[in-house]
Amino acid sequence: MLLDFDPDVVGLAAQPFWLRWHDGVRQRRHAPDFFVRLADGRGVVIDVRADDRIEASDAEAFTATATACAEVGWLFRRVGVPGAVLVANVRWLARYRHPRCAGAAAVADRLVEVFAEPRPLFGGAAEVGDRIAVLPVLYHLLWRRLLAADLTSGLLGPSTMVGPAGWSV
Fold first, then answer.
1. Interval 14-44: pLDDT, tens
2. Environment class of residue 115 by beta-carbon count within 10 Å: exposed (0-12), middle (13-18) or buried (19+)?
């Protein structure tokens, strides 16, 4: 879901291949978690594992994967577990990713105009119209990153500050 939210990601596949190698004692294999294609054309192989759950055999598999990726010109990233608040907020916004949530262009344009200066989420939405009609469009704009909010420090709510694309707290 976080990869889907990343505007640089244009394609992804889960457990895209098996990597096989001999460690000097026995045959080993590892299926990385994701292969990602970035907008600039680069490929990235990603393994997700919490830092405190990496055993020696895991570290060896990640090293072998990084080596294989370098040989074919791909990047390799081993990432930890994302923060719970970020995951909850992105999960919420993902509900509004579908184009049907874009609403009328006039509403979206007005939201971008209102949030050109950062302001609380509900207050800005109320300036545009009925919150029940406006909020899905606002969440869609946040999903598409046409508006911005801090998604890591607290759950999205009425007082969450929202600003223009690229804005950060």
1. 999 999 999 889 999 999 999 999 999 999 9
2. buried
Are 100 and 133 within 8 A, CB to CB? no
pTM: predicted TM-score of the whole model, two decimal places: 0.88
Of 107, 105, 128, 117, the residue nearest 162 (C-alpha): 117
Residue 34 one-letter amino acid: F
Angle between helices 131-143 and 105-114 (to 10 degrees): 80
CA distance 40 to 88: 29
Which residues of the chain form beta strands (DSSP E)? 9-14, 19-22, 27-30, 34-38, 43-48, 75-79, 119-120, 147-149, 161-164
CATH (one of 3.20.20.150, 1.20.1260.10, 3.40.50.2000, 3.40.1350.10) for 2-79? 3.40.1350.10
Separation of alpha carbons 160 and 151, rounded Å: 9
- Using CA atoms, how far apart are residues 121 and 132, in angstroms rounded to an integer? 13
Each residue's pLDDT tens digit, 103-157: 999 999 999 999 999 999 999 999 999 999 999 999 999 999 999 999 999 999 9
